[in-house]
Amino acid sequence: MSKNIKVDLEVVITSDSLYTTDLILDKEIILEDYNVFVTVNRAPFYKAKIKKEDNLLLCKITSILEPEESVKIKEKYLI
Hints:
Radius of gyration: 15 Å
Number of helices: 1
Largest sheet: 4 strands, antiparallel
Strand order of the largest sheet: 1-2-3-4
């Protein structure tokens, strides 16, 4: 028996050096030190990397987060 299950996937880029005061409309943000996570239903689930290929930005999943690590990330970045 198969069932369709709907999940929300999001790519989240976080940085300890980025603050809401840095976010200005039409301003380019350059981040040298950042983390990329893929969330499943708003819970961090995967670590990932951003790749640029043929003028596309791709998200490559590199590892699965441990449950404890996921909770720490969710609390730290208020995901």
